[in-house]
Amino acid sequence: MTAALDVKGLTTRFETRAGHVTAVNDVSFTVQPGRIMGLVGESGSGKSVTGFSILGLIDAPGEVTAGAVLVDGVDLRKLSKEDLRKMRGRKVAMVFQDPMMTLNPVLRVGDQMAMAVRVHQAMSKSDALEHARKALEVVGIPSPAERLKAYPHQLSGGMRQRVAIAMALLHSPSVIIADEATTALDVSIQGQILAEVRELADTTGAAIVWITHDLAVVSSLADNICVMYAGRIVERGTAEQVIGGPRHPYTQGLLDSIPARHEPGRKLPQIPGSTPQLSRLPDGCPFRPRCPRASELCRTEPPLDVRDEHAVLCHHPLEHV
Hints:
Elements: E1 5-16, E2 19-31, E3 36-40, H1 47-55, E4 62-71, E5 74-75, H2 81-87, E6 92-95, H3 109-120, H4 125-138, H5 144-147, H6 157-169, E7 175-179, H7 187-204, E8 207-212, H8 215-221, E9 224-229, E10 232-238, H9 239-244, H10 249-256, E11 304-307, E12 310-313
């Protein structure tokens, strides 16, 4: 089966006063149709930049300097700007953390959804509105015809996020990238949207990249997980492999900080230190200064250890019996 999304060696750099900074460093992964891949890491790990790089949304002083991004076998990086623009929304779409980045506050929801439909499809406004209504219905919005007449500020945060997801679905894209799409929502609404996203992947066959800092979220949502640190993927595997038997000390640290894994009232363990500045990365493994298993060997580049498709970039990977 051809992967819906195949990212190979993606590298993105930014020109700063301190010189070139590599925000995405040789990132590779694949997502099959109907599957959800969780892209996880702390703030500053390169998750969002990876999403923007896939869509070709990196502006100066940033630049995608290497790699391939194949959507249904078509390399987006080889397309002209006009052809890439046509692919966005139609073949690959993005859901942002703040739906107000997607929604125009001075236009009714129906008007802007109809405009998005007609950009890619020759359709009357009435047909476009009906198409938009069905999309709202798919994401569980009650009375969708009424919601089309509303302005974004008249909707709750959870409802606006559903609208943003519905807009991403308008053209039945092969790939949807969701960047921290439920972070600002309360737990109950977040749970509802995650359940709807899982159902969407199953029913529409879309491949979804779910970008988040929260391993607890992707543990119940994703089929596969990639863990990022300092611009690199340091661990990847199935959700069961990564959550049930993490092999990188950083992944273990993220899991240890999840409250649900500990008794109430006990102090949560935390990863010491903070994410390094990309302009001042340590020699060798970038996680070395924070890692409890670090040795002198970690001052050299860590090898990629792959076992049963569970890969880890580490000199001293964890072993689980």
